[in-house]
Amino acid sequence: MKKLLILATALAFATTATAQSLAAESGADEVIRYWDNSTAPHSNCDSKPEKINRGKSTYKVAHTTETLFYIFKAKQSKGQSLIIFPGGGYKTVNLNFGLGRWLAENGITTMVVKYRLPNGHAEVPLEDAAAAVEYMRTNAERLGIDPQKVGVSGSSAGGHLAAWSSVVLTGNQKPNFAVLYYPVISGHIWTNKPQWSTFEELLGKWRTPEEVNNHSVDLLVNSNTPPTLILHCDDDLLAPTFNSTLYYKALKHHGVKASYHIFPSGGHSWKDYKTQWLEATKEWVLSF
């Protein structure tokens, strides 16, 4: 895979004032503009301009057509690294850099990925996930990490992308472990519209049952799936815990090392038990 541009500082890469501000505010040590629709193997065919809606701590980015890696280097690296795929229902990429900064402060080099949204072209976000893992491995020496200790993580739709990359990618693109936060897993859970919409954004309105099966990652787990930590809240109405339970059962059926934590409250987030989630993540990642 090829990259368009590598920039060592967050301010240098931006093509617009909005992108420049976002890069600066991230606090990342490096921002890598890897490729876009014109240079990647596949395009999401989205012709609308990128749009950023700013929240208190989150940047909801819609119509993404280029792939950016925000890298936070560990202060005292222990060798492990974690790639974060933000959620957003495959309709937006909800960038939040707080976890990346916290993990870096605790010895874990982290990459937050602004991936290209599928827009009905499911291969596009997976292509970006593969590029992220491969980039970390091929730049391991420069980043001070172990190329065999590269993990993936994600929340909600980002959790789907992390799990999906765990089960289908191979070789230099396959992660060594995974961390899933309230992930969307199955396209067969129809208890709420947001989950249905996630698969609609991924596969399109007229997706077939076969396409849904091929992207419901609980059905794709095999014995080569990497060890996985799953964290979820029991009162999550957007991505019910059925998702995580199905995935955990599939992992154990195939003899894969896994840990599953269900917290009593917090909804579609980790707000009620943030400290516990952070510590569980750190402990899991540093165990590899």
Describe the structure.
The protein has helices at residues 17-26, 98-105, 123-138, 140-143, 157-168, 193-203, 209-215, 242-253, 274-285; strands at residues 5-7, 30-36, 51-54, 59-62, 66-72, 81-85, 92-95, 109-114, 150-155, 177-181, 228-233, 258-263. By secondary structure, it is of the alpha/beta class. It has a single domain (5-285), classed as Rossmann fold. A 9-stranded mixed sheet has the order 1-2-5-8-6-9-10-11-12, sandwiched between helices. The protein has a 3-stranded antiparallel sheet with strand order 3-4-7, with no helix packed on it. The longest helix has 16 residues, at 123-138.
**Structural class by sheet pairing and helices:** alpha/beta
Query: Low-confidence parts, pLDDT < 50 over ≥5 residues?
Result: 1-17
Shape: globular
What is the fourth-level CATH superfamily?
Answer: Alpha/Beta hydrolase fold, catalytic domain
Cα separation of the termini: 27 Å
Q: What number is the mean pLDDT?
A: 91
CATH architecture: 3-Layer(aba) Sandwich
Helix and strand string, N-terminal first?
A: EHEEEEEEHEHHEHEHHEHEH
- CATH level 1 name: Alpha Beta
Q: How would you characterize the largest beta sheet?
A: 9 strands, mixed
Assess the beta-strand content as a share of residues. Answer: 15-25%
- What is the CATH third-level topology name? Rossmann fold
Radius of gyration: 17 Å
Integer tally of domains: 1
Percent of residues in helices: 25-40%
Number of contiguous helices: 9
- Main β-sheet, spatial strand arrangement: 1-2-5-8-6-9-10-11-12
Number of strands: 12
